[in-house]
Amino acid sequence: MRELAARTVGVDxxxxxxxxxxxxxxxxxxxxRWYGPDFRSQLQIAAEIDDIYYGLALLRSxxxxxxxxxxxxxxxxxxxGRLPAGxxxxxxxxxxxxxxxxxxxxxxxxxxxxxxxxxxxxxLNILWDAFRDEAASGRPxxx
Length: 143
Fold this sequence. Notes:
With 143 residues, the chain is of the alpha/beta class.
């Protein structure tokens, strides 16, 4: 089994790891900010993916070895078995030498009175309630 023997990975070490990365999106935007517009020539990209399930399938089948860059919530779901992953998947954090550090800010917007037109099980109300509860807890959900 090939395994990265580290709890965190810094800017320089990430350059040498085989990576599975999204072909576009917020993760790719951060990678470009960290390594510049020619990041593909500076990193060891094993696969570019358009879909998280495809990336997980590549790694699970061992068709590709490497580290998949994704939001913490997605990685946690894979490790917890809520996404099709493997028993040997684990989360590795970024070291604190990335600038800017990866953070996402989310929000939910609705027109005045719009939420009342839907029942409690509607996605807008579920998302709204989740954000309200997170804000009230004082501890934001990690990525």
